[in-house]
Fold this protein.
Amino acid sequence: MLFFHYDIDMSEKQENFTLLNGHVIMKRSIYNPTSDAVWLAAYVPIKAKKILDIGIGTGGISLCLLYRNPTAQITGIDTSTNMLDACKINMELNGRHINLVKADIKTWSTTETFDLVVTNPPYFMGTPGNTGAHHTTDISVWVKRSIARVKPQGYFCIISDALTTDTIISVLKTKHFGDIQIFPLFSKKHTAERVLIRAKLGVKTGASIYSGTNMNNESILRSGLTIDEWLATLR
């Protein structure tokens, strides 16, 4: 789901939409980010300076991160030239810079590591659409390759279908990640539809599970609170 910011100029309304109550501008294109992008950006450690966005798409996650942390240095990778071209347009709309790389995380050859790695992986089952976004991949391989880019004491953050939770946590535990924090997102079902997971490399702290919230939580999606800020209001 997306929240749109409606301007007086009707032509602009049709061409662009915004996230975080107008703070992030996105041009409608081959793939428009969903609320998953906003949720993931709201769950990351806010002080991370060097960030890798895996499967950056049209830039929704990274641009939300840069709204809160404008001095962060972000590298975004994607296999699609069309996605990267659309991301460049969105960078310009927001006056931001992201280092874009055409690469597949499963085969990307680099020794560079990051304070924070974020990803919204292909987790849907079924036949991909025209963009191929968010459809089936081997989630275990995706996570292994992603966390290999995290520097010691750095963080990994992911949003995925709740059915992948056990696989993701299993990989994190075997690769020396701890302080694993699980935040479920609910729709109208009694079981979680999505999960947010963040973890830190090189610590032995165990896992914790939050009670979570509804996927339509306006304090996060519209008012722009981070999840930690929203949790603080509950206390």
Remarks:
- The chain has a mean pLDDT of 89.
- The first strand starts at residue 16 and ends at 19.
- The two ends are 28 Å apart (CA to CA).
